[in-house]
Amino acid sequence: MTIPVLHILNSKGTSVVTVRPQDSVTAIANLLTHRRIGAVPVLDEQGRIAGLVSERSIVEAMAHRADTIDRLTAADIMTRDVPTATRSEDIVSVARKMTDRHSRHVPVLDDAGRLVGLVSIGDIVKLRLEEAESLAREMQSYVMQEGHASVAPHPFAS
Asked: Where is the signal peptide (predicted)?
């Protein structure tokens, strides 16, 4: 069964925290910490995806450019070639992109290329877990129906 990205967006919402290319790295680090998020899309003047700043981007900047960190901007450290998804794209396809590109966040774009959401690996894992738990409950219910169980349920089973 294929599940579209839209399913995740319907559950978590489409509000996305974004930054501009000229925003400072220290301001972005504070934003990520305050909002308890792992990445923010960087939007250009037309509102299009210019890149993505993640916790990893900031750590790499600290490791390689610590002496100038207070002068760096999103444009200096952002990942520019960001994998994206559409609302109708299957989450398995998105998870594959994340794995192939070592990215934990994928911006979701509409047909005109505008940002309409952000999907994280955590969102996909949560959905897959819910899906597995639901399937397990359905199978248990089916097996425990009269005449389907090969062994009677234990009297203390819940």
From this structure: none
In tens, the pLDDT along 61-79 reads 999 999 999 999 999 999 9
Cβ(104)–Cβ(124) under 8 Å?
A: no
pTM score: 0.80
Total structural domains in the chain? Answer: 1
156 has pLDDT over 80: no
Q: Which residue's structure tokens are 């559409």?
A: 86
Query: What is the distance between the alpha carbons of residues 112 and 119, in angstroms, rounded to a whole number?
Result: 18
Q: How far apart are CA 71 and CA 83, in angstroms?
A: 27
What is the predicted pLDDT for the residue at 139? Answer: 76
Q: Which pairs count as long-range contacts for 6-13, CB under 8 Å and 24+ apart, including other chains?
A: 6/87, 6/88, 7/91, 7/127, 8/91, 8/117, 8/119, 8/123, 8/124, 8/127, 9/87, 9/108, 9/116, 9/117, 9/119, 11/127, 12/117, 12/123, 13/117
Q: Considering the domain boundaries, does residue 121 fall inside one?
A: yes
Residue 74, domain extent: 5-144
